[in-house]
Backbone:
């Protein structure tokens, strides 16, 4: 036995060298992630171009391409030997008789070695990373059994954004002939079926079901039937709009229903109805509900100023968190940004999460938008408005066409914030604006069903004015997990940090106040101390503060910001006016960094936990920061209290508990 082991060890270098030079002869050692199966019969040029587009589209994924040549009499037979002989991942199998589409596919899958099999028509051209986007869905959700691409015509018009099956067995290629960029065709969704032109399937499910049902030989309805089989096993069929495939429809089987293989589309429909008559009774009649299989879900329509820029401002982060929570609670989300812009990457991020985002000049047209409300609001159970200008613009229109629950979330009480700004600046225009906004907000509060606020102050203020209204104090931010690996030895940290959107007047005012009235006193004691200013859209007045002690960082990603928080000792929130709970306080507490702020900054939060210190006097604040800066036990204690603050008031469970009181 020892002798055999020595022989194996000594032979390893030779085996590896042989494998490196002869990979094609050792296929049993290679298992690709995806087996791309292209069933073909003639039409060589289309097949050649299809393969070329795949090779151009995906450069790093592990896949094999199986060409199942169904007894062609053109150059197809020589695809491997003449055109792709140097590509080890392209395999061509030549049938010696014609099996037609369904049986050809079943024969090809027996040769597939991938975790997934992907059927692709040969009369297609795949777009960049078409396969990557399909894998993104099926790899990240174990309950997804099949995913299909967005199919477009060569002129860019839409061929299909998922398929709908009606109760009479008729099938609809949703969106056929429309603009493929239109928003309703560009969010991830569950669908009745996906045309077999480009579909990826879990190999073990294909084997378990037994592949396409032979009753649909030679072709048509086999892909629809397979989708129903997957759902019967508890798996979802999904549509991925980022996976784009051009399809030269009709090349393989023609377009006439009375001749050739195409005639089986009519015959197989009858077989399909007979097999699935029980399930077909549950198919809905309305396209709006059927397009994303949401007939068992409640819909919520959310309107805000624009798609939430969740990494740039507290309002955007709050909106983003709640959109995600609505979805987790089982709601289907449709979102409208009042600027009608497709702001990236934020729009695509939400669409990839399965939310429909309305944007573009079509929706910007007031007549079109009102007609959309008139035709579609009846399918929604909840409408969620945010901010006074949005509420004022839409509340009456929504009341006209909607009979469900209307929520309103102001983010903060704008008229109070403006009044406080007037008290600081004595700008009469702010006083006038405050009175105007107050009237708008009060009218909105009267017209909606449920009011959301953040913080105890605003809750008590409105409860006194609207005794009979449902008012909920919701978490501004929602955190599912706390950071665990936090450096709690504050002697290893240095510097101060302020994080704020600096186009927002209260934030800019606070930074300038701190720079002029407080920071010079701190430098007098710690002349090497550094203050980091983080935020988007920094005005010149603040940029001009930069020095050896003041570092202007500008916008940082969440990951970069987290690292900077761990580098600094104290977070500063020097607000002299504002309203509502402040996101910058919560973000700092979530990062477990001690906070020094003002009474405005700490408003609506539980001060007793000790996560932050409140001081409004400039000289006293400077003294507090200087004393705290080297009090390492106190800094650790405040850090721990920040974690407690988040866990007690701003957890996912806390937000769910409040929302579920009304989302019924």
Residues:
């Amino acid at each position: 036995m020892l002798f055999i082991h020595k022989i194996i060890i000594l032979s390893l270098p030779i085996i590896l060298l042989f494998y490196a030079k002869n990979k094609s002869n050792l296929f049993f050692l290679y298992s690709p992630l995806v087996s791309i199966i292209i069933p073909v019969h003639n039409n060589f040029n289309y097949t050649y171009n299809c393969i070329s587009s795949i090779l151009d589209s995906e450069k790093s994924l592990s896949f094999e391409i199986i060409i199942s040549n169904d007894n062609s009499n053109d150059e197809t037979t020589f695809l491997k030997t003449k055109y792709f002989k140097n590509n080890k991942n392209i395999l061509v199998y030549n049938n010696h008789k014609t099996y037609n589409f369904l049986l050809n596919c079943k024969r090809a899958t027996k040769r597939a070695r991938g975790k997934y099999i992907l059927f692709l028509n040969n009369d297609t051209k795949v777009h960049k990373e078409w396969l990557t986007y399909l894998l993104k869905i099926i790899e990240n959700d174990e309950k997804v059994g099949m995913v299909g691409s967005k199919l477009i015509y060569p002129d860019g018009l839409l061929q299909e954004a998922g398929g709908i099956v009606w109760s009479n067995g008729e099938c609809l290629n949703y969106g056929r002939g429309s603009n493929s960029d239109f928003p309703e065709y560009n969010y991830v969704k569950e669908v009745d079926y996906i045309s077999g032109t480009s579909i990826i399937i879990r190999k073990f499910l294909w084997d378990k079901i037994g592949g396409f049902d032979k009753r649909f030989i030679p072709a048509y309805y086999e892909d629809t039937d397979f989708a129903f089989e997957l759902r019967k096993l508890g798996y979802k069929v999904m549509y991925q709009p980022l996976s784009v495939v051009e399809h030269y429809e009709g090349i393989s089987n023609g377009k006439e229903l009375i001749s050739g293989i195409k005639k089986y589309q009519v015959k197989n429909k009858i077989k399909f109805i007979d097999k699935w008559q029980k399930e077909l009774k549950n198919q809905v009649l309305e396209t709006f509900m059927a397009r994303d299989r949401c007939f068992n879900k409640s819909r919520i329509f959310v309107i805000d100023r624009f798609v939430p820029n969740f990494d740039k401002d507290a309002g955007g982060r709050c909106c983003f968190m709640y959109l995600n929570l609505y979805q987790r609670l089982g709601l289907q989300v449709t979102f409208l940004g009042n600027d009608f812009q497709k702001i990236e990457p934020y729009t695509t991020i939400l669409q990839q999460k399965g939310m429909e985002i309305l944007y573009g000049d079509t929706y910007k047209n007031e007549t079109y938008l009102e007609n959309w409300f008139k035709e579609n609001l009846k399918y929604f159970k909840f409408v969620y408005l945010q901010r006074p200008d949005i509420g004022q613009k839409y509340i009456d229109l929504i009341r006209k066409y909607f009979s469900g629950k209307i929520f309103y979330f102001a983010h903060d009480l704008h008229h109070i914030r403006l009044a406080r700004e007037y008290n600081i600046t004595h700008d009469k225009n702010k006083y006038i604006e405050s009175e105007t906004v107050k009237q708008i907000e009060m009218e909105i509060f009267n017209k909606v069903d449920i009011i959301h606020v953040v913080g105890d102050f605003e809750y008590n203020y409105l409860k006194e004015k609207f005794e009979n209204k449902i008012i909920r104090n919701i978490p501004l931010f929602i955190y599912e997990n706390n950071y665990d690996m936090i450096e709690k030895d504050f002697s290893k940290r240095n510097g101060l940090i302020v994080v704020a959107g600096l186009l927002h007047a209260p934030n800019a005012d606070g930074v300038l106040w701190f720079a002029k009235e407080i920071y010079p006193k701190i430098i007098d004691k710690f002349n090497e101390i550094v203050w980091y200013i983080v935020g988007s859209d920094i005005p010149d007045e603040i940029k001009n503060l930069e020095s050896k002690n003041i570092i202007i960082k500008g916008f940082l990603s969440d990951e970069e910001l987290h690292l900077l928080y761990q580098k600094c000792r104290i977070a500063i929130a020097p607000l002299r006016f504002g309203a509502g709970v402040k996101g910058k306080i919560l973000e700092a507490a979530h990062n477990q960094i001690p906070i020094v702020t003002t009474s405005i900054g700490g408003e609506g939060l539980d001060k007793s936990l000790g996560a932050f210190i409140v001081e409004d006097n400039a000289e006293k604040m400077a003294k507090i920061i200087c004393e705290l800066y080297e009090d390492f036990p106190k800094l650790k204690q405040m850090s721990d209290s920040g974690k407690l603050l988040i866990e007690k008031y701003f957890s996912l469970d806390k937000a769910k508990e409040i929302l579920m009181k009304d989302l019924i």
Notes: Confidence is low (pLDDT under 50) at residues 18-28. Residues 234 and 380 are 26 Å apart (CA to CA).
